[in-house]
Amino acid sequence: MMKPLFRKVGIFGIGLLGGSVALGLRERFLAEEVHAYDPDPRALEDALALQVVDRVHTAPGGWVGELELGVLAAPVGVLVEEGRRLAQYANPQSLWMDVGSVKGPVVKALSGVLPNFVGTHPMAGSEKAGVEAAHAGLLQNAVWVISPNHQTPDEALAQVRGLVENLGAYPLVIPPELHDRLVARISHLPYLLAIGLNRLVAQDPHHELLMFLAAGGFRDLTRVASGSPRMSRDMVVANKEALKEAVEDLRAVLLELENLLERPEALLEVAQEAKRTRDALPIVRRSLLPVMHELVVQVPDKPGQIARVSTALGEAGINIKNFEVLAIRDEGGAIRMGFATLEEREQARQILQGIGYRVR
Ligand SMILES: NC(=O)C1=CN([C@@H]2O[C@H](COP(=O)(O)OP(=O)(O)OC[C@H]3O[C@@H](n4cnc5c(N)ncnc54)[C@H](O)[C@@H]3O)[C@@H](O)[C@H]2O)C=CC1
Ligand SMILES: O=C(O)C(=O)Cc1ccc(O)cc1
């Protein structure tokens, strides 16, 4: 049998991300023993009950010195103080990493403090919080940023890269400052907007009527506001400099759009450009992953539709690489599927059209 990459691993903060890393390590036999620390006793109870980890601890202590790998997965606001506290127990030979959404301040504070520290950020998650929502699949096929600085040991960087690949994700090395500027726009600004849009609704005198009227658009745009408020608050505050610049740019764009309301032709051009940008978003990142060929199927609102579609394709030996429910309405919904090859997608199209589905 192959030797696991690590003997003992410790996860500090056993929530959505920490739990998903722990499950990935266990399911892929990358660690002999996974330990967890969390200040919330319910998180520890759940982690044990759901068999996410082997052992739990209510405080850091001597056990930390036995770890070969430590993963910090607490909210960004406590990562630095938690890392400094753990440094007094850590074995100098051990490897340490974090999965926080902001890299600049964390990498600066913990490099050279925790032994062999490497800052990372998996670009995957969900609007759920806590260990009960954790699953190994969350990290699979994700782009996982690794943010070294001049103090990061080469050997540690190589080990973390290997771990990310072994967890089924795609490592992408980006320096901390650039990372923070980019995620301010692609992740943190959308979070702030989701909070803002909900606030606008909550403060309206017709709040209840608005809630009743909210259709898919509002839901899609604000989904991330359902995540852990503490996690997202910490994330945006820790990246406030870069985020303020992004807010400033958005303000200018909003002003431009407001003015374009008086110039419908020009607004149409901007809307068309936005559609091109949005439609070019891949299910998976095409530059890093194999191309995925997509198909959208309209399904009526009747029981057994997902089974009918997947069984028809399964019986023809067609593998569905990705499956996403796009919309659910009373009159029916739509499912988007991804296939590895163009041939499989064409075959799938014919089969589904053959049994009466509208496909595009
Ligand atoms: N939620 C997401 O989609 C993503 C989150 N991240 C990052 O992962 C980290 C964890 O976030 P989630 O798992 O989503 O949050 P979560 O709320 O599901 O889990 C965080 C856990 O950390 C624990 N915790 C709080 N203070 C702690 C401390 N001082 N020491 C150790 N544990 C502590 C909490 O009790 C909780 O169990 C954050 O740094 C976040 O920025 C990164 C990528 C995606
Ligand atoms: O659910 C989503 O779409 C997210 O974007 C989740 C997410 C939250 C925080 C991160 O740092 C990265 C990803």
Automatic annotation (TrEMBL):
Transmembrane annotation, as ranges: none
InterPro entries for the chain: 6-PGluconate_DH-like_C_sf (IPR008927), ACT-like_dom_sf (IPR045865), ACT_dom (IPR002912), NAD(P)-bd_dom_sf (IPR036291), PDH_C (IPR046825), PDH_N (IPR046826), Preph/Arog_dehydrog (IPR050812), Prephen_DH (IPR003099)
GO molecular function term, any single one: prephenate dehydrogenase (NADP+) activity
Short name of any one Pfam family annotated for the protein: PDH_C
UniProt KW keywords: Amino-acid biosynthesis, Aromatic amino acid biosynthesis, NAD, Oxidoreductase, Tyrosine biosynthesis
Residue ranges of every copy of the Prephenate/arogenate dehydrogenase domain listed in the record: 7-291
SUPFAM superfamilies registered for this protein in UniProt: 6-phosphogluconate dehydrogenase C-terminal domain-like, ACT-like, NAD(P)-binding Rossmann-fold domains
Pathway, per record: Amino-acid biosynthesis; L-tyrosine biosynthesis; (4-hydroxyphenyl)pyruvate from prephenate (NAD(+) route): step 1/1
Protein name: Prephenate dehydrogenase
Species this protein is from: Meiothermus luteus
Gene: tyrA
